[in-house]
Amino acid sequence: PFIDVRKPTPAKARTRRPSSDEIERMLFSMGYQKGKQPETVMARVGALWLFAMETAMRAGEIVNLIWPHVHLQRRFVHLPKTKNGYARDVPLTREAIRLVEQMRGIDGESVFFLNSGQLDANFRKARDQAMVEDLHFHDSRREALTRLASKMDVLQLAKISGHRDLRILQNTYYLPGVEELVDLLD
After folding, report:
1. Summary mean pLDDT of the chain
2. Is residue 141 flagged as an active site residue?
């Protein structure tokens, strides 16, 4: 009875990256200001989104990030449990450190003091207010890995992102434009 039944073809991987103009519009709609501690939930969403674009961490990993797992002196955060069930340490750029330090003083053990529901609802609201189309929070992961690809090879990217299957990393997230590859040649 299953002779003519076929598996559905997998959907194409997203290749969406936010432009610098879209990032600015999103941050404006979130009320995030670079030199100021984020006081509102929406501004904390802005800081968290920027942090995601610096670290390639998943939304759930960031909202669950707690101060005892932040090691600013050594420039990394420890994730005791991730989506794939393994712990990993994520190195921090100077900008990521600045974003974490900006969160100091907000009460609670959580670094960004947000839960997944708040992040999702407020990110969508900011996206709609900024009139940015077809942008998902998870696109920040691709943005981060594409940026990091100009500095690191695929094996190093896998160590940061936690990918166990390099094919997924290489075919989905590590997609630098031809211009970026040309720049690496010189």
Report:
1. 91
2. yes
What's the pTM? Answer: 0.88
Read off the tokens for 124: 């969508």
**Out of 36, 138, 151, 164, which one is annotated catalytic?**
138
Mean pLDDT of 169-179: 73
Annotated catalytic residue within 34, 75, 81, 83 = 83
- Residue 102 CA to residue 175 CA, distance in Å, equals 31
Q: Identify the bridge partners of residue 90 per DSSP, sorted by sequence position.
A: 77
- Report whether 86 contacts 78 (CB < 8 A): no
Catalytic residue among 17, 25, 44, 58: 58
> Which of the residues 25, 88, 141, 142 is marked catalytic?
141
**What are the structure tokens assigned to 69, written together?**
């797992």
CB atoms within 10 A of CB 158: 20
Instruction: Assess contact for 158 and 166: CB atoms under 8 A.
Output: yes
Instruction: Verify whether residue 58 is a known catalytic residue.
Output: yes
Read off the pLDDT of residues 21-63 as tens digits, 9 standing for 90 and up. Answer: 999 999 999 999 998 999 999 999 999 999 999 999 999 999 9
